[in-house]
Design brief:
The chain is an alpha+beta fold and 63 residues long. The chain is built from three helices and three strands. Helix 1 crosses helix 2.
Length: 63
């Protein structure tokens, strides 16, 4: 594992160019796993978010 900073769902969505609901959907579908929590908020690694984005776009025939 890397020591990259953990980010909120809102920041993850902004960086990936998707909505926070899309990030949550990726989690529900098993494409993305939270890397930690802060209180009740789930936190993610940016590289994991980008990997989930690549996986979901590839699955839907996008480039």
């Amino acid at each position: 594992m890397t020591d990259s900073p953990l980010i909120t769902v809102e920041l993850a969505a902004d960086e990936a160019g998707v909505s926070p609901a899309t990030i949550r959907k990726w989690v529900q579908r098993g494409h993305l796993r939270p890397a930690g929590t802060q209180g009740r908020r789930r936190l993610y690694r940016l590289e994991d978010v980008f990997a989930a984005e690549r996986t979901t776009h590839r699955a839907h025939g996008r480039r």
